[in-house]
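From the shared-data thread, chain only:
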Amino acid sequence: MKILKAFDKEINNNKYFRYRINLPKRIIEESGLIDKELKIVFEKGKIIIEKESN
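Structure, as tokens:
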């Protein structure tokens, strides 16, 4: 897994960035999370990705 920081845009001398998490293809395909809303939580030094239950 990699977390990437990418420059998005600059408005009135304020720079805005986007962050992207790259996960292995196998994990995504097996999880069934493609095109699902996800909830991301950072706690105790870990990133937790949960599927939203609507």
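The first strand starts at residue 2 and ends at 11.
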